[in-house]
Amino acid sequence: MPYVNIKITREGVTAAEKERLIRGVTGLLVEVLRKDPASTMVVIDEVETDNWGLANESVTTLRARARAAAGSKS
Prior knowledge:
It is a single chain. This protein is an alpha+beta fold. It has one domain (about 5-70): Macrophage Migration Inhibitory Factor (2-Layer Sandwich). Helix content is about 45%, strand content about 25%. The protein has helices at about 15-35, 60-70, and strands at about 5-10, 40-45, 55, 55-60. Strands 1-2 form a two-stranded parallel ribbon. Strands 3-4 form a two-stranded antiparallel sheet.
């Protein structure tokens, strides 16, 4: 029984996009490993950007800095 856990930041991913991820991952497991889709579990966890860190900072801080930099170029 394959189990796939996808972690993404909580930033407006739609239900339709999540469905596409689930179908795509399941289809890949069927195609590559010949797994039964009925026994394939896909879980999508959405994480607040304050709770996701990269390069010593939260994603919230990194995104704010990127927006500020983009705004100063205008």
